[in-house]
Structure prediction request, 178 residues.
Amino acid sequence: AMVVKLKGVAPQIGERAFVAETAAVIGDVRIGDDSSVWYSAVIRGDAGHIDIGSRVSIQDGAVIHCSTGDGLETVIADDVVVGHNATIHSARIESHCLIGMGSTILDKAHVGSGSIVAAGALVLGKTEIGPNELWGGVPAKFIKKITPEAVERTIDHGVNEYVTWAHAFADETETIIA
Prediction:
């Protein structure tokens, strides 16, 4: 993995976290325990702080960044799955969320706990997504409420699955150069 100290600040990576060989984690970034950063994902803490909780999966090709500005940061709480090729920029994602593949969440947006942002959705800056809501479309709009059972069945199941995969990849993979 490319873990880069920038301006004297090194990323902090928690215990049992997996960072794939082709992922980049740069600068003012904190990643919690049992989290995973998959292949070709970029977490670039150059302009602002990025805080990623425990048991968070940042899947292949995702980009996490933050704008320069007073008080701007990117925060992803515990137990979140960020899908392949998603972009999160200067936003706050609460716990137990699923950010769908190819979705984009822009500056100062807030995704409440237990929510799902559908694949391909565009969450505009300053959008407030309430707890246990499904949003989708371009631009993203409210679709429906999500039950606690659906959160457990979909989001929490995905979180646990990716923690298991992260541990397997950390313990059982070997890079082979031909």
Remarks:
- The mean pLDDT is 94.
- The radius of gyration is 15 Å.
- Residues 16 and 34 are 5 Å apart (CA to CA).
- The longest helix spans residues 148-172.
